[in-house]
Amino acid sequence: MNDVLIICADPEVTELIESNLGRNNTVQHSAGLHASPEVLDTQFDLIFIDLISMQTTAVDAFQQTIQKFRLQNPWVQFVALAPQKHTRQAVNAVRQGADDFLTYPFDESEIKLVVDNLQQERTKHFELEYLRDKFWKSDWLDIIYTNNPAMRKILKKIQSVAPTIATVLLLGQTGTGKGLMARLIHRHSHRSEGAFIAVHCGAIPDTLIESELFGHEKGAFTGADRRKIGKFEMARNGTLFLDEIGTISLAAQIKLLQVLQDGTFNRLGNEETLQTNARIIAATNADLEQMAATGAFRKDLFYRLNIFPIQLPQLSERLEDLPHLADVFLNRLNNKYGKNINGLHPGLIDALKAYDWPGNLRELENILERAYILETGNVLRPESFPETLIVGSEIQQAVDRSEELPLSEARQIAIDAFEQTYLEKLLKKHSGKIGSSAKEAHITSRQFSRLASKHGLDKKMYKK
């Protein structure tokens, strides 16, 4: 959020709200619309409106007010403010279009919770608008969901290049998801019905890489007892993914350059020229440009591969996506093993975010699978994770050294753990229905939604 308006005549309320908005916001104040009518012509992202300051008892007055602001910005969000004795009026404001409400006197935690929830809702809304684009196939929506600016730019690049036949070079450390991005490009290309052939160049001996890529005839070399079709033939009308391209021999690089230049090649032991129209996606964790400068990799091949480079970030550079990625991997594990584990113990996400993740996404997936196998409950707990992962974390303090914490902190950690488990069981029991879950918990649906959001629980995950 950038531009915020607080319409309230009480300076204490205004100061408390502004102090909890963060430094990235531009905040304006108004004692009332009658005092600053020009604000109706200004675009805002978030508006707090004290219902008392509206100076009207008309039932639809609030609705009329927010409609005026939405003429300037249809995505603006509203928080209704009211004294506690006027809670019903605040609830009515929500029915008329407010996104949330606060009753004062309130504390800082309430303000932060409401602001954080609104920011999450805004992000989800824009993400859903983005995901509704006909370009993205529904079976990839969980993968492309991201809150990371760098990943959003990468997805836009993929959206641009996927429908073309341009060669793509995926760059990034081991485990950053280069293979996944290659499949994403293929799945959203015009040749998605064709084959996707993946070759891990680093796993094939130099003596066999040419045979693997281009094929060979019977008798072409010792042990060639039959004709072998190469990967370029298999990938005709499809996509050929060359992983760890920096490991192939200089001899293979020469033949690969020829294919990239004119689409022709020949099998080992045969001079017949064959054609291929396979689309090439290459990937490497090496610095190909540096290798080309030192002669370890052909410069002309590097230039052919480097038509559309995409640099993938490390997991440590996109930690805001870690909770969602953990959910995606957990869902896959549930499908694979059938345990139906619903989430992570409170505080584990903080521990995971504090870890360096040298193995990136692959390491996260492997650690979660190990914990999943060890787990006997319905939530992944700290004791199922490697000790090195949670050393020094809040979870470890709570579990291993709780007696050294102040009672209030240790109690709060225990309360959070119980609260998450309790909410998860209700959501599971009622198939993700907030109303039914809240009724059994003897709280309002709004309160239940806030608590679920606090613990990162998504009702969609529990729908049958």
UniProtKB/TrEMBL annotation:
It comes from the Bacteria. It holds the Pfam family Sigma54_activat. GO terms for biological process: phosphorelay signal transduction system; regulation of DNA-templated transcription. The keyword Signal does not apply. Keywords: ATP-binding, Nucleotide-binding, Phosphoprotein, Transcription, Transcription regulation. SMART domains: AAA. Coiled coil: none annotated. Residues 3-119 form the Response regulatory domain. Residues 144-373 form the Sigma-54 factor interaction domain. The modification 4-aspartylphosphate is found at D50. Gene3D superfamilies: 1.10.8.60, 3.40.50.2300, Homeodomain-like, P-loop containing nucleotide triphosphate hydrolases. PANTHER family: TRANSCRIPTIONAL REGULATORY PROTEIN. This is Fis family transcriptional regulator.
